Structures are given as structure tokens and as C-alpha cells.
Amino acid sequence: MDGWLTSPWIVAVLAVFAWWFSTGAILWVVRRSDAGDRMAHGRSVVLAVPLLALGIAGLIVTAGALTPLNVVLSFGSVLLVWGWVELAFLAGILTGPERAPCPPGLSGWPRFVRAWTAISHHEIALLLGLFAVLIVSHPAENPFGLWAYLILFFARISAKLNLFFGVPRINTEFLPRPLAHLKSYFRQGPITAAFPVGVTLLSAATICFAERLISVNDPAAQVGFSLLATLAGLATLEHWLMVVPLPDAKLWRWMLPAPTTHQEGTDP
Q1: Rounded CA gap, 63 and 82, in Å?
Q2: CA neighbor of 259 nearest in space, from 170, 184, 176
Q3: I need a labelling partner for 50 at 20 to 30 A (CA). Which of 43, 155, 186, 193 fits?
Q4: 101-144 pLDDT tens trace
Q5: Is residue 15 in some structural domain?
Q6: In a domain, 263, yes or no
């Protein structure tokens, strides 16, 4: 097994597949829950708790030794932890105390504060997740799970800020019913300073990890930097998709059940 795991190209392909599959799996669960009863979203989050536990256990087990297998498993473990938090967010469990749309005409600092209260629980959960991964992974022989979480963390914060300040393309097709009010906090328009800052930092991270991949000789480190460079590159691509008009939704639309519509005042 270690033979193919030592190939940076193979693990890069695995990282792309993991990104595509995990995103699609979460969207599938959320879409199915949207078509269910009022408790469906909560049930999906509870039923996924074993995956969260598996991710935490995987980080603990793989932190002690730097081997190609441990690097790949720690990367997958981080995706499980991150995926559970994202599922809880999309299910409306980890959002924030503000559940109403943004009032028309609200701008400036009051709009920012209201947007924060609409997603604050999710941000706190992501930060707590970062602390948990940090405790498990540092100091440790295998730091690549921590670095993967840091990339995901920064990319998500940057993406949210760009959606708030303004970007030309905003895809709300996959936004579930529990988060419908968040559409009012998005701003579609010209990019702001938040976009070049986010893209530049993510691009620099991609180049930095790629340079480390080329310069190191240790097979485990090569695998790790290949995964990190791929993940940072995908995060950079996701940012550009907020500007470049490409049909990225087609990557997952075909695998999802048809969305259901519910009339106001009726039970789902």
C-alpha cells in the first residue's frame, strides 16, 4: 500500500477526489434532509457524529509518526472533522442566534454585526475545531493534518468575507432551507480588496507547498506537501469561481436529488 502512497501525483489526485466526493456527500445529505420532515436535518447531524469521532481518533493515532500512510490518513481525518462541522452548519444547527433576513438598506458596521450574529456559532465551532486539531497535532511528528485544517479555515473565512463584501458570482443553488436567510447578507457586485488579499495568500501558499514538495526528499513529506499544495490550489480555484463565470455547480448537480419546494405555512 505504501508504494502508491509515496507518489505525489497519486495523492494529489486522491485529494481532488476527496474534495469533490466529500462536498457532494454533504450536499446530498443536506438535499435529502431538505425533502424530509422538520427533524431531518438534526437527525443527519447526529447520525454523522461517529464520523466526527473517527476523524478525531484518526488525528490522534496518526500524529505520532511521519509516514506516507499516516499523512494520508491524517488528511482524511481532518476532512471528516471539517465535514461534520460544515454539515452542522448547512443543517442550521451551527449557525447563529440571528435567523431573520438582513433588513433592506442596512449597511456598514451594523450590517457586519448582524451578519456575524447570523453565523457566529459556526465560526466559533471552526475555531474550536482548530484548537482541538492543534492540541492533537502540535508538537507531533506528523503536522500535515494541522496544516490542512489551517488551509480550510483560512479559505472559508476569506470566502465568507468576499460573499459579504461583494463578488460578481454567487451560487445559492445548493443553499438549504435552514440557511435561506443568509442570502440577504450576500452582496453581488464588483470585487473588493478582500478578493485579491485572499487569492494572493492562497496562491502564495500553493506555490510555497509546491516548492517544498520539489525540494524535500523524504517520501512522507513529499506526500504531505503534495496534499497541501493541492488543497491550497483548490481553495484558490474556489475563490476564482466567485469571479469567473464557469458552471462549477455541474460537478455535483447531477448526483443530487431534485430540490423540493414547500409552501409557507405548511409542514414540509
Answers
A1: 17
A2: 176
A3: 155
A4: 999 888 899 999 999 999 999 999 999 999 989 988 877 889 99
A5: yes
A6: no
| Residues 33 and 238 sit within 8 Å (Cβ to Cβ) | no
In angstroms, the CA 218 to CA 33 distance is: 45
CA atoms within 13 A on the CB side of 202: 27
C-alpha cell at 234: 483548490
Residue 137 lies in a domain: yes
CB 162 within 8 A of CB 195: yes
Range of the domain at 116: 2-170+178-251
Q: DSSP string of 144-166?
A: HHHHHHHHHHHHHHHHHHHHHH-
Residue type, 127: L
The pLDDT of residue 263 is above 90: no
Grid cell for residue 216: 524535500
Q: Is residue 261 in some structural domain? A: no
Q: Which residue has the cell 513529506?
A: 221
User: What is the count of structural domains for the chain?
Assistant: 1
Cell of 83: 465535514
Task: Give the span between the Cα atoms of 204 and 258, in whole angstroms.
Answer: 39
* Cα 25 from Cα 146, distance rounded (Å): 23
The residues with which 167 forms a beta bridge, in sequence order, are 188
Query: What pTM value is reported for the model?
Result: 0.91
Secondary structure of residue 63 in the 3-state scheme: coil
